[in-house]
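tokens incoming
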């Protein structure tokens, strides 16, 4: 039993080393130019060790992305399951809070994937996660009336504007805290664009 746990830890540690090495290379080379040899050299392992864990660099990237999205989806689902009312003006919506906290915790990964060397359909998948989360959120709300605009347009607005703010936040080196960012997006959502600008509506 103990030997098995030791092997599992070694496997996990090796996979982490390979993933971290890959992330260090991505800012320097575009994905198409990166070879398994490059990754193995950066990780200080031989190619056979790499192939013991991943089929190729595409498999490595897919595993890294899937792991992050599975974690994010789990965090969002846990927080979403306890929500039923509209957030207050002085507290960030828990969904926004989870998003920004998660991205800060995995800063290097998201900085590389979103800004430096976007590969595959990462932005599309992140958009889908946010969109589905807010669809569930809307479904749980105690609403007195129907959605005021077409649901697909509303969800697109929420997801694309949120991703845009995430991009800008990372590009600005995360000067503001996750709490601050989540609170501002919550207030914009509560007020609406024109009220947020100070207009009387």
């Amino acid at each position: 039993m103990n030997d098995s746990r030791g092997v599992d830890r070694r496997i996990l540690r090796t996979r982490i080393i390979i993933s971290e090495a890959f992330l260090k290379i991505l800012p320097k080379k575009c994905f198409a130019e990166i070879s398994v040899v490059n990754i193995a050299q950066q990780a200080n392992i031989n190619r056979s060790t790499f192939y013991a864990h991943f089929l190729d660099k595409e498999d490595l990237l897919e595993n890294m992305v899937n792991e992050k999205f599975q974690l994010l989806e789990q965090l969002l689902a846990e927080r979403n399951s306890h929500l039923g009312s509209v957030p207050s003006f002085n507290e960030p919506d828990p969904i926004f809070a989870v998003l920004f906290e998660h991205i800060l915790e995995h800063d290097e990964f998201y900085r590389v994937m979103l800004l430096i060397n976007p590969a595959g359909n990462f932005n599309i998948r992140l958009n889908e996660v946010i969109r589905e989360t807010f669809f569930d959120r809307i479904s749980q709300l105690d609403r007195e009336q129907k959605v005021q605009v077409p649901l697909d347009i509303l969800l697109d607005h929420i997801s694309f504007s949120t991703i845009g703010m995430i991009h800008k936040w990372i590009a600005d080196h995360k000067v503001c805290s996750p709490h601050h960012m989540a609170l501002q997006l919550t207030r914009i959502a509560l007020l609406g664009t024109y009220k947020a600008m100070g207009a009387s509506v």
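note: The longest helix spans residues 2-25.
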